[in-house]
Each structure stands twice: as structure tokens, then as C-alpha cells.
């Protein structure tokens, strides 16, 4: 039984790999049109394709493209009023022969909207549309024609199309965050450094402090560092790593100035920066504490553990 499950997964993977090799300029054409859309991106389908279409529409909407899904049957009962000449309609049908989808095409053409399809090449649906994304594949379960590889492939193709549109629109993480203000996803991409930074019991010291006193501050404040300032302006950053390296030197003395061993060009960030960007910066530079500054003055610290 396990072998059968593995065969199904392999078949669906193969369908995606084959499709990746057969992508043509129609794919880029569709992505470019969506990136420059003036109206709405409307996804239309029936059955299992409708389920994929809903996810596709939701993904595009989350990335800055005004989009919604309409069931093909509902278009014949008033939902055509949602569509005009500025819109792009993507019709999904694996076979390209779905009656509910085909019979609405003349009415969509009357609206003079742009028509694209996700279907098998040379299918009736594909031939009616201005460009098509090919979904030619064999379903994974050989005994019955249940939608398996076809729906997986359609979903993967829609994700690839989304990626191209995001690239063409130069859609950034800040833009993405504006559409996801709620939940853990929103928290991760919308919270700012000011929301998470520590502002009390900061390990601040003057540039004249010696290593012995710096260790006392480091222990008391539990940040694993001492921030060296001159009139509150950031000058240096003395970490526990700096301390360990200093103690390995032959002329080490606890009476020496901490600034002698400190980083005099420490990494810092503005309080209004996204917390996501701050944590990314910390990981890239392999640091666990980041100074938050305003007009060169230290106003807080951000710890990697706060992520």
C-alpha cells in the first residue's frame, strides 16, 4: 500500500516537472498582462477546478492584484455584472470541454474582457482564449479519472504565475505586510522594531569604562553586551564574544578600556524598520543583539530571541 502512495506522489511530481519544461511565451504574456491590469483578475471554474481557482484568486489578492473567484454557473445568474472591459478572466478546465465554462464564453466576449485559460492545449476552451497555460497530464490514479495530477499541476502553475507577477510588479515585503495585518503572519511581517525593542535596564556605559566595570554591567543587564556611548550617541559595542577574545591576549588587563576591544562600527537599525528586516539583518551578520538608534542616539536594543 505504501508503494502505491509513493507512485501517486511520483506521478504528480512528474506532471509538474514535465509542465515546467513545456512553459512557453504565453505564460510570460499572461503574467505581464496581469501585472499591468487596470481592472480585476477574475478566476472562473467549476468542480475541483473551482476549488483551485478560489485559492489562486486569494493568493493574487494577497499580493496586490485585485482578484476574486466566480463559479461558472453563477455567471449566468447575475454575476456577469461584475465584469467589464478592464478585467482579465482566467477560465480553468482541465479537459477544456466543461459545458458550464464553454457556454459563458460568448457573454464574456461581449464584455470585451481579456480571456486566458488554464487547460489542455488545443482544447475548445484554449482555442477560444487569447492565451493558454497547458495542463496536459495523466491523472495519478489509473483506475479512475479523479482529479489528482491535474489539480496539483494547476495549483503549481498558478503559484508560478503569481511569482512572475510579483516580480514584474516589484511587489515587496512591505507591500505584502499591508495585506496581512492579522494573525501570526501579519505579526511577523507588520510589526516594527519599536514594538519589540527593549527600552529599560539597557547596558549603556561611557566610552571610558574599563573591562571590569563593563563585566558588571553585562551581568546585571543580561544582554550579553555593553553599549558604549558618548553623550548617548552610539560609539562602540562590547560583547561577551569580544570579552572572550580579549582575555586570550597576553597583555590582557581588566583595567583596560572596553572600547579598546569593542566594535566601533556596530550594526544598528531604525525603530521604524520592520522587525522582520531587523531579525534578518541579525541572522545575516551572526549577531544576537542589535542597537536601535534615533538621530545616532541609542534608544533600545533588539534581541534575536525576541523573534
Concise synopsis of the structure shown:
With 307 residues, this protein is an alpha/beta fold. Helix content is 44%, strand content 19%. The protein folds into two domains: 2-171, Rossmann fold, CATH 3.40.50; 193-306, CBS-domain (Roll).
Structure description:
The protein is of the alpha/beta class and about 300 residues long. The protein is elongated, with a radius of gyration of 29 Å. It is about 45% helix and about 20% strand. The protein has helices spanning about 1-20, 25-35, 45-60, 70-75, 100, 105-110, 125-130, 150-170, 175-180, 185-190, 195, 210-220, 240-245, 275-285, and strands spanning about 40-45, 65-70, 90, 115-120, 130-135, 205, 225-230, 235-240, 270, 290-295, 295-305. The protein has two domains: about 1-170, Rossmann fold (3-Layer(aba) Sandwich), CATH 3.40.50; about 195-305, CBS-domain (Roll), CATH 3.10.580. Helix 7 (about 125-130) links the parallel strand 4 and strand 5. InterPro entries: CBS_dom (IPR000644), CBS_dom_sf (IPR046342), GutQ/KpsF_isomerases (IPR050986), KdsD/KpsF-type (IPR004800), SIS_dom (IPR001347), SIS_dom_sf (IPR046348). It comes from Campylobacter canadensis. Belongs to the SIS family. GutQ/KpsF subfamily. Pfam families: CBS, SIS.
Amino acid at each position: 500500500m505504501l508503494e502505491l502512495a509513493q507512485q501517486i506522489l511520483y506521478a504528480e511530481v512528474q506532471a509538474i516537472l514535465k509542465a515546467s519544461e513545456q512553459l512557453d511565451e504565453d505564460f510570460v504574456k499572461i503574467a505581464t498582462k496581469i501585472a499591468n491590469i487596470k481592472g480585476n483578475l477574475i478566476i472562473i471554474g467549476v468542480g475541483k477546478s473551482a476549488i483551485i481557482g478560489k485559492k489562486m484568486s486569494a493568493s493574487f489578492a494577497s499580493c496586490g492584484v485585485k482578484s476574486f473567484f466566480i463559479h461558472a454557473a453563477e455567471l449566468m445568474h447575475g454575476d456577469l455584472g461584475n465584469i467589464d472591459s478592464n478585467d482579465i478572466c482566467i477560465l480553468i478546465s482541465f479537459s477544456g470541454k466543461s459545458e458550464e465554462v464553454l457556454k459563458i464564453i460568448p457573454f464574456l466576449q461581449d464584455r470585451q474582457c481579456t480571456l486566458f485559460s488554464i487547460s489542455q492545449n488545443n482544447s475548445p476552451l484554449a482555442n477560444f482564449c487569447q492565451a493558454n497555460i497547458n495542463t496536459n497530464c495523466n491523472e495519478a490514479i489509473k483506475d479512475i479519472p479523479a482529479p489528482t495530477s491535474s489539480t496539483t499541476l494547476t495549483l503549481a502553475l498558478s503559484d508560478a504565475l503569481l511569482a512572475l507577477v510579483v516580480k514584474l510588479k516589484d511587489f515587496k515585503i512591505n507591500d505584502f505586510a499591508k495585506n496581512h495585518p492579522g494573525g501570526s503572519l501579519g505579526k511577523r511581517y507588520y510589526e516594527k522594531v519599536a514594538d519589540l525593542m527593549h527600552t529599560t535596564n539597557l547596558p549603556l556605559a561611557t566610552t571610558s569604562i574599563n573591562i571590569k566595570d563593563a563585566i558588571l554591567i553585562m551581568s546585571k543587564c543580561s544582554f550579553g553586551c555593553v553599549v558604549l556611548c558618548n553623550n548617548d550617541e552610539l560609539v562602540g559595542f562590547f560583547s561577551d564574544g569580544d570579552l572572550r577574545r580579549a582575555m586570550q591576549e597576553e597583555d590582557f588587563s581588566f583595567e583596560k578600556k572596553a572600547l579598546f576591544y569593542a566594535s566601533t562600527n556596530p550594526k544598528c537599525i531604525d525603530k521604524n524598520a520592520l522587525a522582520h528586516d531587523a531579525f534578518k539583518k541579525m541572522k545575516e551578520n551572526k549577531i544576537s543583539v542589535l542597537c536601535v538608534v534615533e538621530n545616532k542616539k541609542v534608544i533600545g536594543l533588539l534581541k534575536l530571541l525576541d523573534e
